[in-house]
Amino acid sequence: MLEGYGGLLAQGLWVTLKVALLSLGAAFGIGLAGAVAKLSPWRPAAWTATLYTTVIRGVPPLVLMLLVYYSVQIGLNRLTEAAGLRQIDIDPLTAAVATLGFIYGAYFTETFRGAFLAVPRGQMDAAMAVGMGRCQAFRRILFPQMMRLALPGLTNNWLVLLKSAGLVSLLGLVDMVMVARQAGNATNRQFFFYLVTALVFLALTSASQLVLSRLERRYSLGVREAGP
Q1: Which residue, 29, 46, 48, 53, has most beta carbons within 10 Å?
Q2: pLDDT for 31-48, tens place per residue?
């Protein structure tokens, strides 16, 4: 049925998943840092984070992906040329992860910021009053409550990021979409291979929603639901 392309599609799927999961880690870290910066009383940090989220969320991800990828490579080429060093070529996997992480870090920033603001300030004050340090209070009190509130938004961000991982073939990465395109062109069955790819993405997003819904219930343990 797959005319010998099953193994290549499986390899492409692994590349897509690897890009998505690594990008998720990068976006998560950038999002936390960006949220802390936006809520910081130090205005330069807040302004920088606000500018970052405003610009990134206002430009289509595909345009940003190409812009970041090519601009970084061009910038590196100019630096190495000016310094008389050997040219540095960015690995497509590294470029894809860094680009997607940078783009979706802006969306994660806003999700985390809203969740932080939704946690009552008295929670941190109470933790400090019983002798916890700021880091310990953040890890044991603020972060778990923030995550419970942020998970619905993070779920949506992850699903969009996962589907955007299908665009990394534009950066020269041999992912599932590129394999499907090559297989379709070689067999003249473009519709079939793109349909297979679409069904795989649908299965991935469905499985992700199940896992994240369970994680949301885990963080909601002991939380009393509001009455009617």
Answers
A1: 53
A2: 999 999 999 889 999 999
Tokens 């603001």 — which residue? 117
pLDDT at 226 over 60: no
| Cα dist from 93 to 36, 97, 168, whole Å | 28, 6, 9
Q: Between 92-118 and 143-164, two packed helices, what is the crossing angle to 10 degrees?
A: 140
The CATH superfamily label for domain 20-172 reads MetI-like (1.10.3720.10)
Q: Can you tell me the distance from the alpha carbon of 182 to that of 189, in angstroms, rounded to the nearest whole number? A: 10
pTM: 0.87
| Mean pLDDT, range 55-61, rounded to an integer | 87
Q: Shortest CA distance to 143 belongs to which of 157, 128, 159, 123? A: 123
The DSSP code sequence of 96-134 is: HHHHHHHHHHHHHHHHHHHHHHHS-HHHHHHHHHTT--H
**What are the tokens at 123?**
């929670």
Collect all residues with Cβ–Cβ distance below 8 Å to 179 and sequence separation of at least 6.
Answer: 5, 8, 9, 11, 12
